[in-house]
Design brief:
globular; Conserved Hypothetical Protein Mth637, Chain: A; alpha+beta; five-stranded mixed β-sheet; single chain; about 120 residues; 2 helices
């Protein structure tokens, strides 16, 4: 008698998502058009090693000044926290989209529409 081993994984195990069923697929990095919640995108210029932490909106765009040095992602993390505080959202809702090693960074802000983001930045 010959036995055939059948490998079946539970649907909750990572890596067991069915590739033939679109209900089980998801993007690794969500984009605004794919979500049902509001998500705004903001591009900022980060100025590390500043004397103070501040978010400034001017004619050249948004500048986030941080005290941290640009080593090990510390300046990026501090910039995300400062931006969250300036926008009045929890820091966990601000995620880096691009620019990890650049001074110009793009952040996703969950829970805010683009209009809300613009209004909150005008108040600054």
């Amino acid at each position: 008698m010959m036995f055939t081993e059948v490998s079946r994984r539970a649907p909750t195990v990572p890596g067991s998502l069915r590739q033939d069923d679109l209900r089980y697929s998801f993007p690794s990095s969500p984009v605004a058009g794919m979500l049902h919640v509001d998500m705004a995108i903001i591009t900022v210029r980060v100025a590390p090693r500043s004397g103070r932490t501040a978010v400034e909106s001017g004619p050249d765009g948004v500048v986030v000044r941080v005290r941290a040095a640009p080593e090990g992602g510390r300046a990026t993390e501090e910039a995300a926290r400062a931006l969250a505080e300036a926008l009045g959202v929890p820091w966990t809702r601000v995620r880096l989209q691009s620019g990890a090693r650049s001074r110009t960074k793009t952040f996703d802000v969950d829970g805010l529409s683009s209009q809300d983001l613009q209004q909150r930045m005008r108040r600054r």
